[in-house]
């Protein structure tokens, strides 16, 4: 067939897509690809449409086929990089970046977005290199300066981070995320804070917007440091109210998910499938967000036999592939429903293969996405060699820390005290279930004990994992990026005797405190 036929099918696909006729559009692109298999834009369009139609595996296959064609235009490279990030294919994303000739690109916007995508898969050193090129292209570009500040924070250079964030705000005062990150870099003082500047910005953003939420959480952080607790609480309440409107929590789906997990994952179900010997031992660090999982991973990463792999959706990605379904977050009720028919040998092998680059040749790899506690039964079934470390922290400390953290698009339960209590109870019951059906695979690690006696607790942890003792697993004195909400706290050693941050708000937290009473 002629090039004219290719162009006709392309126009048909574009027209159908604009009209919202996804099936017809996908059929047109697939017809085009039957004629011209190297048409990168058609591959990328087909990938997006297949995902919209619930065909997860097909969508991923189209994205990987596009990667093999080595797209070169700015638009195609970024579209492919976004798709590979969405499918959580970090190795493929880094391959895409490697072949993109990013050092030759001129657009600071393009470079900044590419650096952001690279950072989300854990390669912050490469992200910083890309941002260095972007800074040469346009040193005054505010979003670039903002993200340079974020990456500098990940690397623990708080002074450099502050300079970058201030430069971003000087150029673009309404860049709300920069105010929020700045509020977390250090403890604010009466002599040095940003409260009035942020209050001025609140009046300039759209009420109820994500930008107002960032500023509200930032004001809460700084006013809390200043001991102005009434004002701090008002800011926190406002931020939580906005986030709850923007990202409502689906309580019914959560209940169905938890019930389905405990019904499906009995002792027979979680019995491991047969697998060939694994090249490394995956160590999953799970629990509630803000329970100390980053601290534990950083300590383990000091052991010469452990690669600290960071916080990824690598396991959930393989569950999505096995179920041919893209859920929201780590798990939902529909993925649990489909889980009975998943090939768990395939899930385990794909996880090991696609995470091998993070292990860096070491015999142990940590994966510290806290909400993998939902996946523990599937992890136990698909990865016989895997071990699970469950971080346990005081319920009120943990839940209040969740309440005052502005998450991106996860932890939608964390902006309301009643929903937070309900989720915490569901989590506790599920962890009790895992201990019952997998008694030798899960170890509780208590945060208070860990900070009080790092050596004593880490000796127990290493013994559970089958690792020899090494004093490197008791300190935080290591270089490298920490790309989590706990990044500022991972510098300067283990913090002991930290006062309960919630105590100044005790009278306002009665729903939380009373609701968590049975778990304390």
Automatic annotation (TrEMBL):
TPR repeats mapped onto the chain: 6-39
UniProt-recorded Gene Ontology molecular function terms: protein-tyrosine sulfotransferase activity
PROSITE patterns: TPR
Keywords attached to this entry: TPR repeat, Transferase
Parts forming coiled coils: none
Entry protein name: Sulfotransferase family protein
Protein source organism: Lysobacter silvisoli
Source organism phylogeny: Bacteria, Pseudomonadati, Pseudomonadota, Gammaproteobacteria, Lysobacterales
